[in-house]
Amino acid sequence: MTTGVLSAKSRSISLAHGPNVINDVLQIDAAINPGNSGGPLLDSAGRLIGVNTAIYSPSGASAGVGFSIPVDRVNRIVPQLIRQGEYRPPSLGIYVNDEINERLQERLGIDGVVVLDVEENGPAERAGLRPTIVSRRGIVQLGDIIVRIDEHPIHSVSDLLNVLESYQIGDTVTVTILRDGEQQQIAVQLR
Fold first, then answer.
1. Which residues contact 76 (CB under 8 A, 6 or more apart)?
2. Alpha-carbon distance 111 to 146, whole Å?
């Protein structure tokens, strides 16, 4: 067992492979040794407050800045893992891409997440969200741009994924989109 200080909350860590980011993690200065990932993070009264996940260590040693998933998120995900053997986060039924979205933001000056495609007969398609269309001639008609889910502003794919994780499958959310220069609100039931 190691001891340390909870030095920050609501931190973000990038995954080693892919564009995904885990947001709202706890930052700790307690050592996380090889094999300790997945171990409990306890407060001084012995209560579980998180699950140790990763360490950032420039030297490669076990000392550095550690990160732990808060217990509230663990409590939300673990029951589904036990029941189904996998975790499926709530989904709008859309296809997005962080790299493409960043390029579109830079080139077009947009703020939000561009819907690249919608799943056939998925929640987004049933609600009327429009995908991006590329003609045979290469002309691009930009899809809807998601700028808000309920009261949560959406600036990036990471924002979108993290906001969706705070809901349950079956919840209905109000998605504010930018379509043809005008904002619209569309109700979508998450799958």
1. 165
2. 9
pLDDT at site 133: 94
Q: In the structure, what pLDDT confidence band is assigned to residue 104 with cuts at 50, 70 and 90?
A: very high
Residue ranges of the chain that CATH labels 2.30.42.10 = 94-189
Q: 24, 6, 3: which is closest to 152 by C-alpha?
A: 24
Q: Report helix, strand or coil for 54.
A: strand
Answer yes or no: is pLDDT of 14 > 90: no
CATH architecture of residue range(s) 94-189: Roll (2.30)
pLDDT tens readout for residues 44-86: 899 999 998 888 776 766 667 888 988 988 888 888 889 889 8
Class of domain 6-84: mainly beta
Q: For tokens 């994924």, name the residue.
A: 161
Tokens representing 166? 């705070």
DSSP characters over 56-115: E-TTSSS-SEEEEEEHHHHHHHHHHHHHHSS------SEE--HHHHHHHHHHH---SEE-
Instruction: List Cα–Cα distances, 92 to 19, 70, 124, in angstroms.
Output: 19, 25, 6
User: Mean of the pLDDT values across residues 91-100?
Assistant: 92
Residues of the chain with CATH 2.40.10.10: 6-84
